[in-house]
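Hi V.,

Quick status before I head out on leave. The structure for the redesign project is tokenized and pasted below; the design run finished overnight.
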């Protein structure tokens, strides 16, 4: 059955793919700066500021649970923002999510502490964290769709990887900001110093808004809207036509557990009494690993444009299961050289293979009219599980919080579903953008267009 020709529609202006990639990189870096400073604060500061410090173990567990709350809110945000992103366009969602993240992060810096308002303090913290989660739910999916649909043929992996390298840039920025903050005298740190990184989100929101408001909508979305119109209920179309790929994305997104365990649980474990490493040193581990990731992500993505998405993703997921074990072992020894080396290899190099290729890999599974919904819903359900992996890890580590091998095995187990999802997926790196999301009928050499 032949594929109906798409109307020519508006073409991308010269330089628009690069402009879209740059906007995705900078916007994601600014957005995830906000998101990741919360992770550092949840591991180092919030147990003493918002929870009962007379029971340090419970306070740390509750603080890490608030980190996971945003991941629980993300599937809800994905349903709402995915719906509107496929109806109204990618650009509007990209601007909205950035402003929402900036506001919610600024408000965290203004919250009263437990000593000031008692039990109301952690409640307000959770509410702000929920808003962060809703924002993050639409950020990557909209940025991924924007860059993928603007990318030239044969380079979708490279251009969409800017979204994730931007995320790593935001994590690096958050870590660098927290290094001098964590080095402050204890009384200043716990009274007002921890608030500074959160207040900087005002500048984050302004810069991101200026960049993103000038970006054009994608030609693929414009052609789709002009030819067939947008789907009235994108979620219905998504679940009817693409349910298997949604499940693949959910399973694949569990690989993000490597990131949350590395950036939050391992940080709390390394600086606990069980190991006794310094806050500043461990923050530098994350900073250097992210520097390496900034270079590794586009390289892995470029390789996926040549050999395919599946093999590169599998290398990242399976390799992370092994190298995460080595990293947590290195932390348990208290050796700074081993910790730096294994941290850079695990998070900077190996994990970047999966992290750099998934924006293209997941986005190419869906047709234009449901792409943002498909990526948003699938990733955010998987990311929700990954976010709470930190809380489970804190429980698995035992009363003393020092059973690192159990946490390493738990993380490795979470890398198995992503490998299975990748192996069972279609290889799409050579499929034209306008043909993505189409089905191949038995006995037919050509794909059939998926319709609503």
């Amino acid at each position: 059955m032949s594929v109906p020709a798409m109307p020519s529609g508006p073409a991308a202006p010269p330089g628009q793919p690069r402009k879209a990639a740059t906007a995705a990189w900078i916007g994601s870096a600014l957005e995830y700066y906000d998101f990741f400073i919360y992770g550092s604060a949840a591991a180092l500061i919030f147990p003493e500021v918002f929870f009962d410090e007379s029971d340090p173990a419970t306070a740390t567990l509750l603080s890490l649970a608030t980190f996971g709350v945003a991941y629980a809110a993300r599937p809800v945000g994905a349903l709402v923002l995915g719906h509107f992103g496929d109806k109204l366009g990618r650009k509007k969602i990209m601007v909205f999510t950035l402003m929402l993240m900036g506001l919610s992060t600024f408000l965290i810096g203004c919250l009263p502490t437990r000593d000031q308002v008692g039990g109301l303090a952690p409640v307000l913290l959770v509410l702000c964290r929920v808003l962060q989660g809703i924002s993050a739910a639409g950020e990557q999916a909209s940025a991924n769709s924007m860059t993928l649909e603007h990318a030239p043929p044969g380079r979708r992996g490279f251009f969409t990887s800017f979204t994730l390298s931007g995320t790593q840039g935001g994590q690096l920025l958050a870590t660098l900001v927290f290094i001098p903050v964590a080095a402050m005298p204890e009384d200043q740190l716990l009274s007002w110093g921890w608030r500074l990184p959160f207040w900087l989100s005002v500048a984050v929101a302004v810069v991101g808004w200026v960049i993103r408001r000038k970006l054009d909508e994608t030609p693929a979305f414009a052609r789709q809207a002009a030819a067939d119109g947008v789907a009235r209920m994108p979620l219905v179309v998504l679940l009817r036509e693409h349910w298997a790929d949604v499940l693949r994305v959910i399973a694949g997104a569990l690989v993000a557990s490597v990131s949350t365990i590395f950036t939050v649980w391992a940080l709390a474990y390394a600086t606990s009494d069980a190991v006794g490493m310094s806050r500043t040193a461990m923050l530098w581990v994350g900073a250097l690993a992210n520097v390496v990731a900034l270079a590794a992500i586009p390289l892995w993505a470029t390789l996926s444009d040549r050999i395919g998405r599946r093999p590169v993703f599998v290398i990242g997921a399976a390799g992370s299961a092994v190298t995460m074990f080595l990293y947590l072992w290195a932390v348990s020894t208290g050796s700074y050289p081993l910790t730096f080396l294994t941290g850079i290899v695990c998070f900077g190099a190996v994990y970047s293979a999966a992290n750099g290729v998934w924006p293209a890999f997941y986005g190419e599974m869906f047709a234009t009219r449901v792409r943002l919904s498909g990526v948003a819903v699938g990733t955010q359900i998987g990311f929700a599980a990954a976010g709470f992996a930190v809380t489970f890890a804190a429980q698995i580590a035992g009363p003393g919080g020092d059973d690192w091998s159990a946490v390493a095995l738990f993380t490795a187990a979470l890398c198995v579903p992503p490998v299975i999802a990748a192996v069972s997926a279609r290889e799409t790196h050579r499929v034209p953008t306008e043909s993505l999301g189409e089905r191949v009928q038995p006995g037919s050499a050509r794909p059939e267009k998926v319709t609503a």
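Above is the designed sequence. The radius of gyration is 21 Å.

G. will cover questions while I'm gone.

Best,
W.
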